[in-house]
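Quick one, T. Sequence first:
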Amino acid sequence: MATIVRGDADAAVVALKSALDAFEQDHPGAEASLYRQNSGAIRIRVIDRRFAGMKRSRRHDLVWDYLGQKVATDVLQEISVLLLVAPDELRASLMNLEFDDPLPSTL
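Structure tokens:
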């Protein structure tokens, strides 16, 4: 199941968590996590070995399309980061470091 790693679990976060739970079920081995960064921004990270060698644009198309079938447009508009990485890309990703240890939001 997807993990809410910090912040409030409001209705938008819960809706996205539910969609990410389904993504994990449909994509065995994928790991999703999310959190609300501030009042207008939700960050999502999906780690999936199937992303290895896949262009970033293709990854985004796949996951945005999936989420778009599961949650309302107004919820999708709150996503400020959709980090899609293969396990071997985690250490090289600066956004992954920010996801794990975010700078405080000023909002």
